[in-house]
Amino acid sequence: MPIKWRLAVLMADREIDYKKLAQMTGLHPVTVSKHKNIRVMPERLDRDTLEKYCKALNCQPGDLLTYVSDKSKDQTL
User: Fold this and answer.
1) For the segment 15-39, what is each residue's pLDDT rounded down to a tens digit?
2) Is residue 59 classed as helix, strand or coil in its secondary structure?
3) Residue 43: what are its φ and ψ, rounded to 5°?
4) Which residues have CB under 8 Å from 25's CB, separation 6+?
5) pLDDT at position 75, please?
6) I want to staple 29 with a disulfide (CB 3.0 to 4.6 A). Which of 3, 5, 9, 22 is the partner?
7) Torsions phi, psi for 67 (to 5 deg)
8) 15 Cβ contact list (under 8 Å, min separation 6)
């Protein structure tokens, strides 16, 4: 997948677990846990959810998403 999801990385950097992030965002803990445990961008991510993560983690949307070109992926194989 060319777009990586970095929620787990940002949570680790800020030492926030999924329960705390759920409290901060108002999202259900199961939703946050699912989003934390995936490495590729979710198939569907509401703008409202993205805004909640950005507000709680004090970050920009680009901090949560990273584009990895196919060329970079081929070089690591």
Assistant:
1) 999 999 999 999 999 999 999 999 8
2) coil
3) -55, -40
4) 32, 49, 52, 53, 55, 56
5) 56
6) 22
7) -90, 130
8) none
The pLDDT, as a whole number, for residue 68 is: 87
How crowded is the C-beta side of 42, counted as CA atoms within 13 Å? Answer: 16
What is d(CA 9, CA 39) in angstroms, rounded to the nearest whole number?
10
Looking at residue 74, what is its pLDDT? 52
Q: How far apart are CA 6 and CA 67, in angstroms?
A: 11
pLDDT digits (tens, 9 = 90+) for 44-74: 899 999 999 999 999 999 999 999 887 755 5
Q: Report the C-alpha gap between 26 and 41 in whole angstroms.
A: 21
Q: Do 26 and 33 contact (CB within 8 A), yes or no?
A: no
Bridge partners of residue 5, in order along the sequence: 65
What is the identity of the amino acid at 45?
A: L
